[in-house]
Amino acid sequence: MPDIFSTTETPYAEGKILKHAADGVGVITFNNPDKRNAMSLEMWEGFGEALTSLRDDEAVRVVILRGAGGKAFVSGADISQFEKTRHNAAASEEYAKRSAAQRALLADYPKPTIACIQGFCLGGGMQVAMLADIRIASHDSQFGIPAARLGIAYGFDGLRHLVSLVGPSWARLLMYTGMRIDSAEALRIGLVERVFPEDQLWGETMAIAETISQNAPLAIKAAKITIAQVLKDESARDMGAIKAIGNACMDSADFREGRQAFMEKRRPQFQGR
Ligand code: COA
Predict the structure, then answer these.
(1) In the UniProt record, does the keyword Transmembrane occur (predicted)?
(2) In this predicted structure, what is the pLDDT of residue 3?
(3) pTM of this prediction?
């Protein structure tokens, strides 16, 4: 993964989380390569702060999540903290609460998110990747949830996403064995959407992000909201939210701009309203 932003990144969690924004694309980097980007609680909290800042930055239209060092996206929770912070049910609940608040931010993120995965994507790293809207990986990546090797119960949200992506049988095989699969298998079972050679991964991910950032933000938001509702049980669906964003789109200046630009054979300039 290129170290292209090193002078313009904002650090969180003592630099173990980095944030960058330019040309409508926000990037959050998990930056603890010595530990294969294992997530400490401080990193979870820094991740939440970076997500919030990019969420509130009106110029940012899409957010990419990536790992530093070329060897891992995120290798899961930092196991070295478990003895202190996650040694029994009560401690684990407190731990889960602190990290769950940040995951909830990502789960309900109002902008499109892309996980750009190079190397190991394990345990809690899989959860982050699965919470992103889209997963793009390099050929040399490895995926797995080794909860059964550690004696950990993987939570409802993580498994809900796993089952919705790969189906219950693959979810069981992955969870019961704790096995790791490579990118080709991950692609085949629907865990990732696209796979590229390592040296093309970042360029291809940026190309998708740039395309998204140039499209109409409200139309993308409508797709995001509606797909999230499709995945809910019928009784829990908020059809009102779908209607509201649909109306916002159809009444928007961007829809007018989209129509005009098409007729005038030019590229549309969308404002998000
Ligand atoms: N938590 C804490 N430390 C971790 C870690 C994690 N999840 N993953 C890797 N590290 C540390 C290793 O302890 C090692 O530290 P050291 O240099 O002080 O010995 C360093 O990162 C490099 O890891 P290493 O195992 O030597 O590298 P590798 O490239 O051979 O293997 C992994 C990488 C990710 C496959 C392997 O480290 C691993 O299996 N990690 C645990 C993954 C896991 O169980 N995640 C789920 C947690 S819920």
Answers:
(1) no
(2) 62
(3) 0.95
DSSP three-state, residue 196 = strand
Nearest CA to ligand 1 atom 23: 35
Which of 214, 236, 255 is at the close of a domain?
214
Q: What's the pLDDT band for 235 if we cut at 50, 70, 90?
A: very high
The whole domain housing 62 covers 10-214
Rounded distance, CA 65 to CA 27, Å? 6
> Do residues 249 and 174 both lie within one domain?
no
- Nearest CA owner, ligand 1 atom 20: 35
- pLDDT, the chain, mean: 94
Residues 117 and 204 in one domain: yes
Same structural domain, 156 and 221: no
Beta bridge partners of 26: 21, 63
- pLDDT tens per residue, range 205-234: 999 999 999 999 999 999 999 999 999 999
Provide the CATH number for the domain around residue 168: 3.90.226.10
pLDDT tens digit string along 141-157?
Answer: 999 999 999 999 998 98
DSSP per-residue codes, 18-35: EEEEETTEEEEEE--GGG
Q: Are residue 134 and residue 160 in the same domain, yes or no?
A: yes
Give the phi and the psi of residue 16 in degrees, each rounded to 5. Answer: -80, -10
Residues in contact with ligand 1 by the CB-under-6-Å rule are 35-36, 38, 71, 75-80, 120, 122-124, 146, 150, 152
User: How many structural domains are present in the chain?
Assistant: 2
Instruction: Quote the ligand 1 centre to 55 CA distance (angstroms).
Output: 31
